[in-house]
Amino acid sequence: VIEMKNRKSSISAETGPWRLWLWGACEGFVLFSLLRCMRLESVGDALVCLLVGAGATVPWVLERLGYRMSGPLFVFTLFYLLASMSGRIYKLYYLVAHWDKMLHLCGGVAFALVGCYIPVLLDKKYKDDRTLRILFAVLVSISVAALWEFYEFGMDRLFGMDMQRDTIVTSLHSYDLGGAAGVIGSIESINSVTVNGQALEGYLDIGLIDTMGDMMIETVGAVAYAVAYALDKGRHPAFIALPAPCRHPVREAAHAQSE
Question: Which of 13, 16, 166, 186 has its CA 20 to 30 A from that of 149?
Fold first, then answer.
């Protein structure tokens, strides 16, 4: 019993009240954003705020299940959720350079972490199989990146959105421009293109460059996590198993008799 109490107190000391303060500040920001979206009558953005607010409760749900996020993972999770929400609600995707790429990098890390723990969830015997867990980490993250790009493509094609953002291209290299079979033809220094009378600064790529860039940077994030996990050798686990609640045998027997 004494050992269990000491273990509990050590975990509480490591946690500290900062988690609750940080979580409360984040939920307050989400609530402010939700009220702002409701005032602007933006239903879609309001739903995003609700989803982020629900997602921010995941650390406490995990604690109910007997696991606690490590401090760095707790901060990273809240940052990732708020940054994703702010990109849409406050138009940071368009106002801040590379905001989207930063989120894709963080997403690569986040989904690699999830993939790393999938083998353990399936069977605890894989807990120390680092090779399998690293493989799962990278492949799951890349798979999620591909599925997300499928989603963006579908939204653009079906609803006329621009989630796969276009890129101005100033040169082209293609076999279709070649003068003979198997010869690559080129158009260099494209200064202007006219489409239905509208002048553009160059050829407008419809999302391919943005899509490939997103997938590559998510892969970089996944590989970075895999390397960090391999070098860490399990010294700093992302999730900490909490001790089972201490039971008092006399009280437990009295409770059983009363039933």
Answer: 186
3-state secondary structure (DSSP) of residue 241: strand
Please state, in angstroms and rounded to a whole number, the distance separating the CA atoms of residues 35 and 24: 16
CA distance 227 to 110: 14
The single-letter code of the amino acid at 240 is I
What would the DSSP string read from start to end of 185-230? EEE-----EEETTEEESSEEE-SHHHHHHHHHHHHHHHHHHHHHHH
Q: Per-block average pLDDT, block size 10, for the chain (259 residues)?
A: 48 67 95 96 93 93 87 94 95 93 96 94 92 96 96 92 89 91 92 90 90 96 96 88 58 49
Buried b (16+ CB within 10 A) or exposed e, 223-245: bebbeebeeeeeeeebbbebeee
Q: Which residue has the tokens 């959105």?
A: 161
DSSP 8-state code for residue 43: H
